[in-house]
Description:
Blueprint: E1 2-7, H1 13-25, E2 30-36, E3 40-41, H2 47-51, H3 57-60, E4 62-63, H4 64-71, E5 74-77, E6 80-84, E7 89-92, E8 95-96, E9 102-104, E10 107-110, E11 113-116, E12 121-122, H5 130-133, H6 140-159, E13 166-171, H7 175-193, E14 205-210, H8 222-234, E15 238-240, E16 245-248, E17 252-255, E18 260-262, E19 265-268, E20 272-273, E21 291-292, E22 305-307, E23 312-313, H9 327-341, E24 358-362, E25 368-373, E26 379-383, H10 384-403, H11 405-421
Parallel strand pairs: 1-2, 1-11, 2-5, 11-22, 13-14, 13-19, 14-15, 21-23
Antiparallel strand pairs: 3-4, 6-7, 7-10, 8-9, 12-20, 16-17, 17-18, 24-25, 25-26
Helix pairs in contact: 1-4, 1-9, 10-11
Bound molecules: flavin-adenine dinucleotide.
Flavin-adenine dinucleotide binds at residues 8-13, 35-38, 41, 44-45, 47-48, 79-80, 117-119, 137, 175-176, 275, 277, 309-311, 325-328, 330.
Amino acid sequence: xxxxxxxxxxxxxxxxxxxxxxxxxxxxxxxxxxxxxxxxxxxxxxxxxxxxxxxxxxxxxxxxxxxxxxxxxxxxxxxxxxxxxxxxxxxxxxxxxxxxxxxxxxxxxxxxxxxxxxxxxxxxxxxxxxxxxxxxxxxxxxxxxxxxxxxxxxxxxxxxxxxxxxxxxxxxxxxxxxxxxxxxxxxxxxxxxxxxxxxxxxxxxxxxxxxxxxxxxxxxxxxxxxxxxxxxxxxxxxxxxxxxxxxxxxxxxxxxxxxxxxxxxxxxxxxxxxxxxxxxxxxxxxxxxxxxxxxxxxxxxxxxxxxxxxxxxxxxxxxxxxxxxxxxxxxxxxxxxxxxxxxxxxxxxxxxxxxxxxxxxxxxxxxxxxxxxxxxxxxxxxxxxxxxxxxxxxxxxxxxxxxxxxxxxxxxxxxxxxxxxxxxxxxx
Length: 428
Ligand SMILES: Cc1cc2nc3c(=O)[nH]c(=O)nc-3n(C[C@H](O)[C@H](O)[C@H](O)COP(=O)(O)OP(=O)(O)OC[C@H]3O[C@@H](n4cnc5c(N)ncnc54)[C@H](O)[C@@H]3O)c2cc1C
């Protein structure tokens, strides 16, 4: 019986493990092993809502062991450290408790086929002081750290005799920066309503979005960028475009034109690259450390190793461009590999084709903007409640892929009831 190991249980990896577990693991046709350094999965596109205190990550995470038991795969918790390609062994480090004590020893897991699905981490582009002083949104722990600093800053500022404003600088005007800025503006109003602090949300909290390009959301249609910018300005968010950040200090962000933006909390959301582990595999990488793959998602160096999602670089043979680091891509690649790995191919392997269904960006609890791919291939721009509803459906789709329709419907109902009986944001 062959062993398929999936390294990384994120948007793509967990969906692949679930599908292969159902089709190959349960009937005993193959052994499916998922390895992740965390014991639970959280869908990354929701991280900005954890950072703003809107979502409690404990409620929305998926326990890998429970998912494995229900869907016929095995789960191993530990950090992947490297691969012995000659012996076909994946090296996994010890799993340690928060105090550093070892809970499970380091292991080597044999594989017949290996799928790399490590995702991406923040790219600081070598900016001086950024790694030391800026927070990121790579993991749930990062989002929690941001939330705690945010609430502490608001409370500290409001306990002083003369209020000093709280300055938050978000570097990067892409989807993550825009979504976080909008959610924070909502959160600070809710915290004031519950008297968690006594700041005036309109004047005592300054949120700045600093973007190097000439407009926000550069990957979207310019009309949507303008619409998003108008919405954010109405919320009191300052937008600084054409500002390339040159240095980050503990209390300020400086751009290359010499402007200084005071900052109590700096969040870096200006780009991603593949994690360090990819450089230790002996595989061909691009300049963002992403593993280069063939049109069948096989690594260019090793036919037994595949890669999907943000840690891989798949160049579309038709368009000649690399697919973007998005949940939509990871999902489609997981579907593709679930089919490819569950069959025997006598001739050439099938090729992955990415279908772009469009992009949606949340602008807080009641608005979003986006562009959808219309039937004729033309872009259809959406906004307001329609876009907001479609944005919510992206997460429901992910839950459905993992748990099926009934569980997704039950979770949606539970979420709706929770919003009726608990405050709209976490208060401490
Ligand atoms: C704040 C934020 C908002 C986003 N919003 C959107 C959005 O609105 N729409 C959209 O399409 N995309 C969005 N994205 C991008 C989307 O989340 C990613 O494209 C998607 O999650 C990639 O899936 P993946 O499976 O490649 O990796 P991930 O989902 O990142 O999962 C990687 C997994 O690998 C594990 N891992 C990493 N290294 C190791 C190791 N060495 N050993 C063991 N395990 C390891 C991690 O713990 C993680 O579970 C957003 C991302 C962020 C950060």
